[in-house]
Amino acid sequence: MNTTINTVTPQDYLNLEATIREQERLLTVELFDDADAWELGQTLVRRIQEQSIDLAAAIYRPNGTLMFAYLTRGTGVSNHEWMRRKFNTVSACGHSSLRAWARWKSSEPTPLIDQLAEDADYAVCGGGFPIMTADGKLLAVALVSALPHAQDHYFLSEALADWCGTKIPSFDQTIVD
């Protein structure tokens, strides 16, 4: 009988963080207005329907104003709460919530991420993604909730790549617990 134990190292988490950082670099925009939020929202809805999954999706301005929301029947208040917490994480860190998680799981978490991981108003897990300019200005935050957190990130980053018309690197989801 052959049993293999998959041991995840701190370096694996740092590599995951680097992959997500590259996704964020590739998924930048020049502008993001209400029409863009509607178009991205429609991309999210189309992909949710094509995959026949229950998922909550939202897009917020950096000040917390809702730009777009869609919740399937199998989602509810708890998903909205998770998205609120993921929004807070992305807003505080300036990058995706899964990237914050990868840094937290590595042997080199930042003091900010350590603090956020302990605060009930934040969620250091996948499903929140910044919509930014190439020079790092936060224009909006896209969010999803209802899948396991690595799948939340995967769904959201792939939908953003579809909307932006670009390819992004993927990562081994088995290292994300």
From TrEMBL:
Signal peptide coordinates: none
Protein name as annotated: Heme-degrading
Species annotation: Bifidobacterium oedipodis
